[in-house]
Amino acid sequence: MLHMDLLLLDLVIVLAVARLFGALARRLGQPPVVGEILAGILLGPTLLGPLLGETLFGPEMKPPLQALANVGLVLFMFVVGLELDQKLVRGKGRIAVTVALGSTLLPFVLGCGLALFIAGDHVGGDKTLPFVLFMGSAMAATAFPVLARILTDRGMQRITLGGLSLAAAAVIDVLAWTVLAVVVAVAGAGDAEGQWKVLLALPYALVMFLVVRPLLARLVPAYERAGRLTPSLLSLVLIGLIASAWATEWMHVHFIFGAFLFGAVMPREGAERLNHEILERLEQLAVLLLLPMFFVVAGLNVNLRALDLSSLGVLAAILAVAIGGKMLGSYVAARMQSVPSRQSWALATLLNTRGLTEIVILTVGLQKGVLDNELYSLMVVMALVTTGMTGPLLRRVYPDRRVARDIAEAERAALGVTAAHRVLTVVPEPPAEQGPLVDLAATLARVKSPSEVALVHLRPYPSGRLEVGTGLSSELAEMAETLHELEELAGTARVQGSQSRVVSRFATDVAAELPEVVGGAEPDLVVLPAGVPGYAEVRAAAVCRVVTVLSPDQSEAADVGTGPVAVHHGSDAATHVALILALLRDRPLVITGGGRASSLAQRLSKLEVRATAGEAPAGALVVAPDNGTVPGGAHLLVRAEQDADPVDWAAAVTALRTPVPQS
After folding, report:
1. Which residue stretches of 320-467 are H helix?
2. Other C-beta atoms lying within 10 Å of the C-beta of residue 237
3. pLDDT 10s digits, 228-271
4. Cα(439)–Cα(445) distance, rounded to whole angstroms?
5. What region, left, alpha or beta, does residue 536 occupy, with left being phi > 0 and alpha being psi -120 to 50 degrees?
């Protein structure tokens, strides 16, 4: 008998604890679903134990709670289908599909292998096939809604990496739901009636897209005539949604597919305002009330008390397959499409999150008898771990500084502004003798187009305060002469195809003001003579690549000359600078540093670069990594930019051989 007072008390407890733990999860930088599932686990037998847990959430209470949770799941899956942007894959189709396949196939195969290994302990003979397929699909899932929330929280939906991950996740969703539909059909087709009903699933999907979709398009003019979402229009949507969910449940293909399919066939063209109002109404009900109920009820079914040491071994295997298969498959697939290494790892990290989608899949498996309670509990733990690790790991793989840089580039691109590759050069005294230094900066600027060379020259105020009529004219004349010399140097950069500008002024404290000037210019590369006032502060504050021209004779050190370019191969940044100088000045490149140097020299030789491995010859311009020590004979030290990507040598050589337009 249903005790209404106990049901209402359960609702109060579930909603209060779900909101509390969801808020705590959000404060810790985690998606609220993590806190809501933990709340359910804590309310269940794991913490409250059989006595109190069975009193509050006993067998007679779970059916009505599950019914409410299922209604929330219907609304949620409709929202997922409605928000699935089919334009995500456009323009990124080949890369997105390749990454999605890699992110799906490897964990799916590994999951099926693990399922075959443990099947004897968890399922009977007639359930082995659906169990194996189910474990594969559960390992391959990606939580599209949680992924979208993580990207939105960091602003990454506006950058290429965010769009690519959303596109890949959308494809993964389709693949995962397709496999799950097969699993549910196989698991539910135990009798003759079930078998023939399952065959209606494909015709039903065709009817939804070919017949129902055009009919739903009529909602748009009705909405425009009314000027708002009327109760009649919302009722039609809800009736259609629930009818679609009922139809797929009747076919033994679970109600979530009917709800998702109805959302997917809702009109898109010209229906933005209509869909926004529908989402606004339903999300409040689903997200605030019914969906937390679903996740808490999912947690109530987890009993970690029943696990033993053998279960921990199975959990370790599940985590290894889920995390290793997902990340390795995504990374390799992304690299095959020439996505840079750092972005590939970030993509793999994002696609490893499971959250909402995984819990939905696991709940279906439990309801259909494909999973037992022990394995369900272990898989829920896996879903929590993979969701919880995404945010912290993503910040390590792709730091906030890198995201901010990508967002700025995306905003410039949206405005049609092409950002120039800016090389900033600190020009010491006397400016007239710094031609080789500026020539070095202009050569390094040619790595990209358009480019800009900024010449910065600060000079201290003369001793004694400048006052009108007491020597000011001579100081201004001296500054005018300096500006003239700097403009002549700027012409050196313009000849090589770069724009150039001059920043020259008096400074009360050159060492203190120079880092501010350099930082404010936001350069991509700094060419910095060693020993200039403020050198240590500029080098420490710069987040970009820094090339230090060593003393005592900066002009000689900066002069590329006619000899070979030699590099101590200890960092990609130093070797890249040496490669730029060698190719753009048509000089041989000598790489020192043992086996790795020899391997890179051979690789560059195959790219038709005059590169050899060995000791730096006499007369060579010697480039070395800036790692705290100065090798004997070094002329240039190169410190890599923060969050540097590994250099793609083939792409670097191709870019350097592309002619730069002359200004």
Report:
1. 325-336, 341-351, 355-367, 373-397, 400-414, 435-445
2. 21
3. 889 899 999 999 999 999 998 888 777 878 888 898 899 988 88
4. 10
5. alpha
- Asked if 305 contacts 258 with a C-beta cutoff of 8 angstroms, the reply is no
Alpha carbon distances (Å) from 517 to 452, 508, 538: 16, 13, 9
Q: Quick check: pTM over 0.85?
A: no
pLDDT in tens, 588-615: 999 998 778 889 999 999 999 999 998 8
CA distance 533 to 519: 15
The letter for the amino acid at 643 is: D
Tokens read off for 594? 């043992």
- Distance in angstroms (rounded) separating the CA atoms of residues 579 and 636: 13
Spatial distance between the Cα atoms of 359 and 136, rounded to a whole number of angstroms = 15
CA distance 131 to 657: 55
**Tokens (6 digits) for 292:** 């937390």
Residue 64 preceded by cis peptide, ω within 30: no
Q: Where are the beta strands (DSSP E) in 415-487?
A: 421-426, 451-460
Work out whether the CA dihedral 77, 83, 89, 95 comes out positive or negative.
negative
Cβ neighbours for 136, distance < 8 A, ≥ 6 positions apart? 107, 108, 109, 111, 112, 115, 179
Residue 504 pairs with which residues in a beta bridge?
A: 457
CA-wise closest residue to 106 among 184, 170, 175: 175
Tokens of 275: 């869909």
213-224 per-position pLDDT tens digit: 999 999 999 988
> Cα separations (Å) of 314 from 117, 120, 375, 382?
10, 13, 9, 11
Residue 647, classified by CB atoms within 10 Å of its CB into exposed (0-12), middle (13-18) or buried (19+), is middle
Beta strands 589-592 and 611-613 are: parallel
- Backbone phi, psi, residue 448, to 5°: -140, 160
